[in-house]
Design a protein that fits this description.
single chain; mainly alpha
Length: about 220
């Protein structure tokens, strides 16, 4: 079964998505479920319309019986990428079962664009557990890092939110790693105070140097 599903991952298209999702939701074997999920993800990626991908996965969520199969389906929603898929993840992030909540947060952290920022920020500020908060932080840092390439007016505010919610030097180091790529003078205002923190001084120095080097020609002062 696993070998067949690995082959289908290379060949399956839109017509095979539903049978693959049925296999994913019916098996009790974790390894077969994983292979079915991977094959379904590859097949979904060959469908051009995000709305169609989303409908297929959300329909499967409607018939999924076990938590494991439901969680596997939630992991496919970032590959769908539309507003209805995001709404389904937001709902699942408030589920009564902590396993479903964790899977939903993990999927939100993998969301392909900044439309998940608000949902992840809410989890980051009021998490159900430290593990969930860490998942949300990693997702937010990734989104902020992606935003560095095409900065919008809210980029610096996003970094302020991340720094304000940091619980540890490890959090700060993670955030500084992305902040160093923010080519805006206001990013220096966020990085410079962290030079006084011995636990993250080295990372703060790297971030300050990267930002200063990137902005000095356009903002010499």
């Amino acid at each position: 079964a696993k070998a067949a599903l690995r082959a289908l991952a290379k060949t399956a298209g839109g017509k095979e998505v539903t049978p693959l999702l049925e296999r994913l939701t019916s098996t009790r074997d974790a390894e077969v479920r994983s292979e079915a999920g991977n094959a379904a993800a590859q097949a979904l990626a060959r469908i051009d319309q995000p709305a169609r991908r989303s409908v297929l996965v959300r329909d499967a969520l409607g018939w999924a019986q076990s938590v494991d199969s439901r969680n596997a389906l939630l992991g496919l929603l970032p590959g769908c990428g539309d507003a209805t898929a995001l709404a389904a993840l937001k709902t699942a992030a408030a589920d009564s079962d902590f396993r479903v909540r964790d899977a939903a947060v993990r999927a939100l952290a993998d969301w392909p664009d900044a439309s998940a920022w608000q949902a992840l920020t809410g989890i980051y500020r009021q998490p159900g557990s430290e593990a969930v908060r860490a998942l949300a932080l990693r997702g937010l840092v990734r989104l902020a890092g992606d935003e560095n390439a095409h900065p919008g007016p809210g980029l610096i505010e996003h970094y302020r939110q991340l720094l304000a919610g940091a619980h540890s030097d490890a959090d700060l180091r993670l955030i500084l790693g992305a902040l160093g790529g923010a080519v805006q003078p206001e990013a220096l205002d966020l990085a410079l105070p962290l030079l006084a923190n011995p636990g993250v001084r080295a990372e703060a120095e790297v971030a300050v140097k990267k930002i200063a080097e990137a902005v000095k020609a356009q903002y010499p002062k």
